[in-house]
Here is the input.
Amino acid sequence: DIQMTQSPSTLSASVGDRVTITCRASQSISSWLAWYQQKPGKAPKLLIYKASSLESGVPSRFSGSGSGTEFTLTISSLQPDDFATYYCQQYKSYRMFGQGTKVEIK
Amino acid sequence: EVQLVESGGGLVQPGGSLRLSCAASGLTVSSNHMSWVRQAPGKGLEWVSLIYSGGNTYYADSVRGRFTISRDNSKNTLYLQMSTLRAEDTAVYYCARDIDDGSGTIFTYWGQGTLVTVSS
Here is the structure.
């Protein structure tokens, strides 16, 4: 199975900060990677698919990059609505989520 | 508008069984690849099972042999039959539209989730 390792597990940041979350796959997944945002009590929301494609309706401050085994999610200027937990997920072989990164208010 | 509505969750004893349903509107279950994803209380997301539009099914190691994914085309509904339930199966279970072959998007649509609690 392909394992996904996300870091950091928690991130403290302020409004306006540039935030970067990293996701590593245990083997190459090409660009078959998605990023989700989840708020308490809600279903996850797709942000990025195929590593760098922005889902329709998602603000352009979110961006994804990487291929193979190393990926990043960047929020260019953190907004109050962005405090949430973020997950990466590979869909090259079956599906596997990373452990999540909680973005907290600093 | 796509809507996925899960039902069937509840309290069940260890070793028991439960069937979850996911009723779809605005989306044809049989024409889409569909998955179940779960989230234990305070924990991360865990993919559980996938059924392709062609009928092939796949399972996470943690549930293989105990859970069965299926669909009823006439009811446009996805199911997850869960048996030999364990305490570690306690979670909110979501159904979601899996990969869209044309665009490459995945898990664009989710239900609201249904809570399964395995406890004596």
About this structure: The radius of gyration of chain A is 13 Å.
